Amino acid sequence: MTRMQHIGVVLGLALVAAFTLLRASDPPLLRQLRDITFDEYQRITPRTFESMPVRVIDIDEASLREFGQWPWPRDRLALLVQRLSDMGAASIAFDVLFAESDRLSPRSIMRDVGGVDPTLLSRLPDNDQIFAEAIAGHPVVLGFGLSTDGSYRPPVKAGFAFTGETPFKAPPRMKAATPIRPQLQINAAGIGHISLNPGTYSSAVRRIPLLLSDGQQLYPNLALEALRVAQGASTYIVASAPDAADTLTSIKVGDFVVPVTASGELWLYTSRDAAERYISAARVLDPDGPSAEVAAAIQGSILFVGTSSAGLQDIRTTALGENVPGVSMHAQTVEQILSGHFLSRPDWADGMEILLIAVLGTCLVMVTTFVSPAVGLACGLLITELALTASWVAFSEWGLLFDPLAPIIAGSIIHFAATSFRILVIDRERREVRRAFGQYLSPSLLHRIEHNPDALRLGGDDRELTVMFVDVRGFTTLSERLQPAEVVRFLNTLLDALSRHVVAHEGTLDKFIGDSIMAFWNAPVDVADHPAKAVRAALAMRETLAGLNATDAFGFGADYTVGIGIGIHTGLACVGNMGAESRFNYSAVGDAVNVAARIEGCCKEVGFDILVSETTAATLPTFALLDAGALGLKGKSSRARLYAIVGDETVGLSASFALLETAHQTLVEALGSRSTDNRKLLARARQRAQPFAAALPEFYRRLARRADHFREAPTEKIDLPSEQAS
Questions:
Q1: Domains of the chain
Q2: Which of 137, 370, 661, 666 has the fewest CB within 10 Å, making it most exposed?
C-alpha cells in the first residue's frame, strides 16, 4: 500500500465512521427520509379496503345543513346514541371532546337570563344530564385530548396486565388531559385518548400511539378502547421485551394481539379513503328513522362519531398523501387490527442498518482504492439494487419496514469521496508513473508498477539484470552512402521494429545510442525468468530483421542486407534514476552493462548475430546454444566463454539440433586438443548446421581460424548468480 493509498483508506474509513455515528444518532432529517420511503411503499401497494364492521358516523356538510352548526346540543347526541344502540352497534366511540357543559342546554341558556325564577331553572331540561343518561348502560367510549395545563387525569375503565415489569416509561408521556364532564365519564363504558401523533415532527399520521403514560398509569387510545368495549373485554395484556421493561412488543385486547413499536405505537397501514367507510349522521337522525341499509351497516359494527367538515379543522394527512378526517384514522386503526395486516419495524432494524453502513462503506472504500472506481461503482449499484429489493420484498411479503435509503445515501457519498480522492491523488501518481515509463516498458509491467508501486524503488538499487546491446553492422559505411534524412528514416524504421520486441517481452528500453539499443530485464520490477525473455526478444529481432530485408523495407535494394549484432549478459548492476535533479534518466550502470556491450562487439569476431555470456547460458538449459569459445573482453584480464543462440526451446529439443550439438561439441574438443582431424569434423558440423540459422556458415568459417579460443586458457566467471554458482 502506497502512502497516498494509506491516506485514502484512512480518510475513507473516517467518513464511514462519521456516517455510522450519524445514523446511530438518527437525526430528524434521516427519520423524515425513512418515513418518506415507507410512505412510497404504501403508495405503491396500499392496504386494500375491505368491508369490515367498522364505520364512521360522519358529521358532514349535509348533517350541518340539516341540523345546524357544530357543536350540536347534547340531547341530539343522546338521540344519536339511542338510535345507534337500538340498531345494534357493538361500540360507539366519540372523537369529540366533552370538556365543558353544553352551552345550548335550556338550563344553561336560562341561567344567563336575569330575573328567572330559580325554581323554574331546576325544572328545565339539562342536555348534559340527558346525554349522560343516554350513554349509561350502552357501549359508549368517550375521548380526551392532551393538555399542558392542570393535573386532570381521566379514569381508566379497563385493567392492565403485564408480561414482565410495568412498562410505564415506554409510551409517550402525558402531562395532563382535557377534562370530561363528571357524569359523562362515570357513565361511559370506555375512555380513550384521541391524539393521533403527539410530539412528532410531521403532520402526516404514520404511527398511532395506542397507549399513553403519566409515569404511574397507562391510558388506551380511542380505537383500542372501542375494540375492547365491542368485545366486552375488561383487561389489556401488555407485553414487553424480556430484558427491557421500557420496550413494548405487543398489546392484547380481547381476541386480538397487536404488534407495536418499542413505545407502544401502531404503524398505520393505510388504505385509500372510501365512501363505504362513512355514514352521514343526518341519515341516522332522519326524522322518519334510519333506512334499512343504514341499520344493516350499523348492526354489530364499531362506530366512530366525528366530522369530515373542513370548517371544523379535523383534517389529517395519511402516508398515502390523502387529506382525510381525523376520525377515519381511528376507524382505520381498528380495520387494520381486525384484518391482521400489520406493518412492523423490528427492534434490531436500526442495528442492522448501522452495521450495513459500516460494512458496506468499508468494502466500497477498499474496492475503490485498490481495485478501481468503476468496480466500486458496480459494487455500489449492486448494493443499491440489493438494498431496494430486500427492503421491498420485506415490506410486500411480510410487512417489515427496513430503511434502504440511509445505506444507499451513505454508500453513494463514500464512493464519490473515495473516487474523487483516487482521481485527484492516487491516479495522478499513476499517471505520472505511466508518463515517465510508458515509452520504455510493456503495458503489463506498467500495470504491475501502477498497482504495486512499492516494487518501484528508484535512486539506485543493486539488482540482478539481464542486459542487452544491439548494434547495426556496417552502419558507418552505410551512413556515408546516404543523405542525413535517409539515415534518420532508416534508423527509425529499424530501431522501432526491433525495440517493440523488448517491450513485448517485459523488458525496459534504456536508451538509443546512435545505431545501438540498450535494454535490460528485471527492473524496475521483478521479471520472472528474465534471461529467457531477453533471449526470446533477441530471436524475435532476428526474425523481424529477416522480414525487413526480404521486403526491402529500407529501400536499399536486393544487393544490400542489413545485419545486427546482439550481446546479452546476466549479472549485478545498479539501476535507478541517474542524472541531475532537474533532468534524470532511469538507467543501469555497472560491470554487467559493460560486459554485455563487449559481448555485442564480439559478434563481429565470431561471425554470429546473437551471443550470450556463460552466466546467461546457464539459465537456458533447453535453448539451442553452441559454444562460441572463450574470447577476450576489453578491460577483462581473463577470457569469457560465450555461446551462440541458434534457437529457442523448440529448436533446442529437436533431433536435428541434437545431431548438430554433438558434432559441434566433438569439433570444439578437437580444437581444444590440437587434433589434426579438425577439417573433417568441421565439415560434418557445417553439414548438420544447414537447417538452422543462415549465419552458421560464417560462424563455422571463422571458427576454423579461432582454434585458440577453445584451447585451455584462464576464463572468467562473469557475475554468476548465487543460485547458478551453487
A1: 3-30+346-435 (no CATH), 53-68+85-96+138-339 (no CATH), 438-578+585-721 (3.30.70.1230)
A2: 137
